[in-house]
Prior knowledge:
The structure is a single chain. This protein is mostly helical. The chain has two domains: 70 residues, Arc Repressor Mutant, subunit A; 147 residues, GntR ligand-binding domain-like (Four Helix Bundle (Hemerythrin (Met), subunit A)). Helix content is 72%, strand content 4%. Helix 5 packs antiparallel against helix 6 and helix 5 packs antiparallel against helix 8. The protein is globular, with a radius of gyration of 20 Å.
Amino acid sequence: xxxxxxxVNKTQYAYEVIRTRILDGxxxxxxxxxxxxxxxxxxxxxxxxxxxxxxxxxxxLIEHQQNIGAVVRSINDNVYKESLELLAIxxxxxxxxxxxxxxxxxxxxxxxxxQKMKEIVQSYELQDFGELNKTFHMAxxxxxxxxxLVQDITKVWERLDSVRNGGISFFPARAPQSVTEHEELLxxxxxxxxxxxxxxxxxxxxLNTLRAFETIQNxxxxxxx
Length: 225
């Protein structure tokens, strides 16, 4: 193995180690990433770790702070809301783009996933609801011909996942409505509704999550002394 290939492999390894810990909530928002420590763990010099950190900065999972170095990016309420707005646009277009390529077995899989979500809502065991919701939408995007679009969606989802593991996110009151909206979306897909109708509905579906978040924000303000 030549030096360049070895360097790339160590950079990728360092990237995956740090990224996984951020998404799993092991590294929390604002936590400093210690280059020496990561380098020892992955068995490399500082250079591959620094390159991995640059990739993670591009993914918007970390940021560099003066006199501190690399830290896990903090996402405040405004950034969270902006991320949902961005997803509404991207996911609306991606859903419409995917629709013509969905096969019968894809639709059946989507119905199965949504049925599991419905059962979770009915049993009030909502721990896995968010992950199933992500699985539902990603199953649609698996047929999207624009893979750059899917990559962008995935990056925003990952950024929001890091926030979820840090505490912001799932809204139980939104869950039943979300399942119902999935049923309506599936009906539109089966009936081959126009791409404009599907895009508009999928966009509003995500914006409804944003509205739920804003409602919780307002409720919190009302109860503050």
